[in-house]
Design brief:
Length: about 400
């Protein structure tokens, strides 16, 4: 029954969009060109949904099918909403004439649809749908290096100027362009950071997705090493396994892949980076998130850590920060997270606006946030998932420089 209502709703939107195009131009070619394209995309979407098997993962064809349909849907939704508002106005105006001009039949009419309103509706609808199409064609590999300098009073002096490169949410099962991915990897290495930290979601569903990209990401190198944690997609929970043993084997394969790439996976554990007699602590927890898997054990990860140690926590889901990290008696100086992707769509103009619909779900969803002396960086993600593109919220390589605040006498 829900599918019937959904199809009827889509049909109504397509009819409104057709009316807008019809009112905007007298050239019938454009009327029927739109009907043909919209109908083909709708039919392709329905067939794709009916044939979709989540246990087999989502193919590149399926992601593009969903992405193209979503772009069309947004266009139709914007046009339909504006024309519906105009129809309400037309209907109300016609009703007023019926009531007030009953003696003059010629005055009883419903105003015709105005051409300029239809043209405005089409223009407004093309903005977000065009952005979504651009994001699919160009935006998903538009890697951005975002630099932050974070200052701490208790940063060990030997680590003044210590540089971190953070990447997150690779989602290797979505990649479809080796040259672009290699460009992103080269860009990471070009930052020449002291350490590279990956904050989870190496794959979409299964470890095999990483096999074509293993040699690419094995190229990541840093003097103090490459460290990683697990994200919610890394556990295989969104895949239908023949048995629990198959799921366990998949996890072991994922662990082995990271070992072969030279990455040190931290599963509720810690690691010290030393310079002379001073050190900082890297702490890595498994995924912990509100509404998602909670395998993270912060207490266990901090077992070998002293309260006065300078601590950097890798925790995939930023909801962990307010739920467990900030209330913890051990102050954790810097938390690095990902997970949100910034929803892969939004508007960012540095110093003026930062907006994405994902902000309604996560308080900390992109960039640096502070609570007293504790800070979190939410990386926008290196890859993409579901919608095969990005617009406005570009794939990110975070470069964070730690500085020791200068004391004044």
């Amino acid at each position: 029954m829900r599918w019937i209502f959904f199809i009827l709703f889509l049909g109504a939107l397509e009819w409104y969009a057709f009316q807008a195009i019809k009112a905007s131009t007298n050239q019938r070619f454009w009327w029927w060109f739109y009907v043909a394209i919209a109908s083909i995309m709708l039919l392709n979407f329905v067939i794709t949904v009916l044939q979709f098997d989540r246990s087999q993962g989502i193919s590149t064809y399926e992601t593009y099918s969903f992405g193209l349909f979503f772009a069309l849907f947004i266009f139709q939704l914007m046009v339909g909403g504006l024309l519906l508002a105009e129809d309400l106005f037309r209907g109300l105006k016609g009703l007023v004439h019926v009531v007030t001009q009953t003696t003059n039949a010629e005055q009883r009419y419903v105003p015709t649809r105005r051409k300029f309103v239809s043209q405005i509706a089409i223009a407004i609808g093309l903005l977000p749908s065009g952005a979504l199409l651009y994001g699919m064609l160009r935006g998903k590999y538009n890697y951005q290096v975002l630099r932050y300098t974070l200052t701490y009073e208790d940063l060990p002096e030997a680590f003044d100027g210590f540089q971190i490169t953070q990447i997150s949410d690779i989602h290797s099962g979505s990649f479809d362009n080796p040259e672009k991915v290699q460009y992103g990897i080269d860009l990471i290495n070009q930052q020449a950071s002291d350490v590279i930290l990956f904050t989870g979601d190496l794959v979409n569903n299964v470890a095999d997705e990483m096999l074509p990209w293993q040699d690419h990401f094995a190229q990541l190198k840093a003097p103090s090493g490459v460290f990683s944690v697990l994200g919610n997609h890394d556990y295989g929970d969104y895949h239908q396994w023949p048995s629990e043993q198959d799921k366990t084997n998949n996890m072991q394969q994922l662990f082995e892949l990271q070992r072969k790439m030279g990455w040190q996976l931290m599963r509720n554990e810690s690691h010290f980076i030393a310079r002379g007699t001073e050190r900082i602590a890297l702490v890595g927890v498994e995924n912990w998130g509100k509404g998602f898997k909670r395998a993270g054990d912060l207490e266990k990860a901090l077992e070998n850590i002293q309260q006065h140690d300078f601590k950097i926590l890798l925790s995939h889901d930023p909801s962990h920060w307010e739920a467990e990290v900030l209330p913890h008696p051990f102050p954790i100086h810097l938390t690095l997270s990902g997970h949100t992707h910034g929803m892969q769509f939004g508007i960012e103009i540095p110093g003026w606006i930062k907006w994405s619909p994902v902000k309604w779900r996560y308080k900390q969803w992109a960039g640096i946030y502070e609570a007293g002396q504790q800070k979190i960086n939410v990386n926008r993600g290196f890859g993409f998932l579901g919608y095969p593109g990005r617009f406005g919220i570009w794939p990110e390589i975070s470069v964070i420089t730690l500085r020791r605040s200068k004391t004044t006498v």
